[in-house]
């Protein structure tokens, strides 16, 4: 029975075997194994108790038939034995009925008397044990029956002889077929196994439901953290059980502390930017006021320092923003605002900016970073465009793809890596520092994406940025 229950457990848990490292699977597995052990032990004890009870009942029935046989026996004058049929069980008269009697005389060579149910067969007892004056044992019966045998030696007086106290010994024997006992035990064991398997499955289902309900607060914490990470929430909200509430409080405190630390870091970055830019502006002004070789060298170095300061300050600010949970920025408003501003800036040249972005689309990151990337790409496109710039934003799975195209002269493949990797300015007549594409590349990489430059269908350059999308 234990093997049958174990097989059922294995089939039930086979589909979740790869999840046994989870808390829920461990709880369910532990409960299932413990229930299996308890039910197997209980089933074994119940089966043994039932077998003992059925065997005892069978032996009691045999003893009743034996007593009836003794009551029906009468000695004749010559020391023989006759049985009165009305005292005997009717099964003794039906051939191979499974209930038999036999009387064996004590004299050597004397024939044994047998019941009609035995026909021409005889019973030879084996594996005997004496209990209370009776001999219990087993024997082989007709048609390969296995018999339980009860026997006792009985003495009858002989009245035909002149000897006083003349007695003759006989062995009375009653045997019953054990197949009925085995069948009854097998039926009980089958019912017991089915009942215990059903009980085990019910217990597992109950434990599964209990675990699911009991661990529901942890799933709510996980879902709340996912909402924070996706930007849909800023903190863990809702009512949690007393055991989970301290964890929720600590997580909220950690999120708030992280936001506070990042805010202070951004403030320090901004202060550093102002601190560095002011001396650089003074140096540039002094160089402009005193022309000469030295002033020209100072001006060039100041320009390089400005570009590097802008470049690395943007990277530092973006890296800090990535550590803040819950950032979520709608894309369409940012692109539309940038488009309106840049159209005014390039109004004299008549550049038209077309923005194509579905309203629900959101960027999983800081708004300032999105403005930095989109602004640099759109401004760069407007500088080189003849009349038209097309900005398209689309969701691709869990990613956001932002493309900016122009109808300008484009960029040769050999120059695309130069403007990204080294931030080189290819045309000094076009305003700007030349760091725009390099900054876009660095920020997108911090978000796990990248920048791709290719030829636009409009004839100019197409810049595509890959970024994480908000769920």
What keyword list fits this structure?
single chain, 471 residues, alpha+beta, Heat Shock Protein 90, 3 domains, six-stranded antiparallel beta sheet, five-stranded mixed beta sheet, 10 helices, 15 strands
- Counting helices, strands and paired strands, the structural category is alpha+beta
Mean pLDDT: 80
The sequence of SSEs as H and E is HHEEEEEEEEHHHHEHEEHEEHHEE
Q: How many domain modules?
A: 3
Number of continuous helical runs: 10
Strand content: 15-25%
Low-confidence segments, ≥5 residues, pLDDT <50?
Answer: 422-433
Order of strands in the sheet with most strands: 4-3-8-7-6-5
Q: How much helix, percentage-wise, in residues?
A: 40-55%
Distance between the termini: 51 Å
CA-atom Rg in angstroms: 50 Å
Shape label: rod-shaped
Largest sheet: 6 strands, antiparallel
Number of strands: 15
Q: How would you explain this protein's 3D organization?
A:
The protein has 471 residues and is of the alpha+beta class. The chain has three domains: 1-214, no CATH class; 234-326; 329-468, Histidine kinase-like ATPase, C-terminal domain (Heat Shock Protein 90). The protein has helices spanning 2-13, 23-72, 179-214, 216-230, 245-289, 293-321, 331-345, 367-384, 413-421, 436-446; strands spanning 73-75, 81-83, 99-105, 113-114, 126-131, 134-140, 146-157, 167-177, 329-330, 352-356, 362-363, 388-396, 399-406, 450-455, 461-468. The strands form four sheets. Strands 4-3-8-7-6-5 form a six-stranded antiparallel beta sheet. Mean pLDDT is 80; it is low at 422-433.
How are the secondary structure elements laid out?
Elements: H1 2-13, H2 23-72, E1 73-75, E2 81-83, E3 99-105, E4 113-114, E5 126-131, E6 134-140, E7 146-157, E8 167-177, H3 179-214, H4 216-230, H5 245-289, H6 293-321, E9 329-330, H7 331-345, E10 352-356, E11 362-363, H8 367-384, E12 388-396, E13 399-406, H9 413-421, H10 436-446, E14 450-455, E15 461-468
Parallel strand pairs: 10-12
Antiparallel strand pairs: 1-2, 3-4, 3-8, 5-6, 6-7, 7-8, 9-11, 12-13, 13-15, 14-15
Helix pairs in contact: 1-2, 1-3, 2-3, 5-6, 6-10, 7-8, 8-10
